Amino acid sequence: QVQLVESGGGLVQAGGSLRLSCAASGSRVSLNVMAWYRQAPGKQRELVAAITSGGSSNYADSVKGRFTISRDNAKNTVYLQMNSLKPEDTAVYYCYAWYFVGKKYDYWGQGTQVTVSS
User: Fold this and answer.
1) pLDDT in tens, 51-76
2) For the purposes of burial, counting CB atoms within 10 Å of the CB of 70, is it exposed (0-12), middle (13-18) or buried (19 or more)?
3) What is the pLDDT of residue 26?
4) Rounded to the nearest 5°, which phi and psi values hold at 70?
5) CB-CB neighbours of 43 under 10 Å
């Protein structure tokens, strides 16, 4: 069983920066993919960025050039550096991870609120 614990959310003015962290614990498995999703009020949850254990990453078009995802495999931790934040980035941000051993096992964190004021 894997537990994901996010931290780093908060309130920031437009144009500011925040760094989210998500630490995985409870198992020593190698997580194939770690990712960040977000869900704004009244909207569907959407992928923000994802990164493989090998370091390959992809981003939603809306955050390209502003957000950077990275991970520390030794610490089983993924980070999301968010710069040039906009009010439309306001959402609950969720950490997501999965690994494959015979079948896919996936996990979600509890979410952390990010609020960007204009």
Assistant:
1) 999 999 999 999 999 999 999 999 99
2) middle
3) 86
4) -150, 165
5) 9
Residue ranges with strand state E in the chain: 3-7, 10-13, 18-25, 33-39, 46-52, 57-59, 67-72, 77-82, 91-101, 103-108, 112-117
> Which run of H or E residues covers position 115?
strand 112-117
Residue 36 tokens read as: 């960040």
Between CA 33 and CA 51 the distance in angstroms is 6
- Residue 4, SS3 per DSSP: strand
How far is 88 from 108, CA to CA, in rounded Å?
23
pLDDT at 30 over 90: no
Average pLDDT over residues 37-52: 97
The predicted pLDDT at position 2 comes to 92
What one-character DSSP code corresponds to residue 31?
Answer: P
Using DSSP, state whether 57 is helix, strand or coil: strand
